Amino acid sequence: MVVERFILVAAALAALVGMAPNSASAAGGEKKTAPAADTGIEMSAVIAPVAQSGRLTNYVFMTVKLKPADPKSATAMQARTHIMRDAMVRAMHRTPINQKGAGQFDLGPVSAQLRAALTPAVVGGNIASLTILRAEPFRRS
Known about the structure:
The chain is an alpha+beta fold. It has 5 helices and 5 strands, in the order ααββααββαβ. It has a domain at 41-137: GTP Cyclohydrolase I, domain 2. The protein has helices at 2-19, 23-26, 74-79, 81-94, 108-118, and strands at 41-52, 55-68, 97-101, 104-106, 127-137. Helix 4 crosses helix 5. The longest helix is centred in the N-terminal third of the chain and has 18 residues, at 2-19. The chain is globular.
């Protein structure tokens, strides 16, 4: 019983300390604003085939970052990542990435292709930006 009261009092004190204002803001000093939350959604392991002269030569593992036009829709987009990933993979398998040479890929049209595939899958249909952060080929031994 004494231990339970001690825990209750300790929890109450911790809650009061957490609610206390900053000394700088209480004294009228400089107020710090919280940095803007990053509303971008990063999706890793998006797999795309690579073709050269119409033949499958390799696969590329991409990390794609999407930023919604409306920051309020980021949560809804996050809940639909599985649908968006499926749309990207399907689009990439319809039109594979072109291989320029050994280990060189033509990623230029890929962003536009992914954006077109994602428009129906995204809540609101508006994507402010789509960035391919990484594109690493599957290495065969």
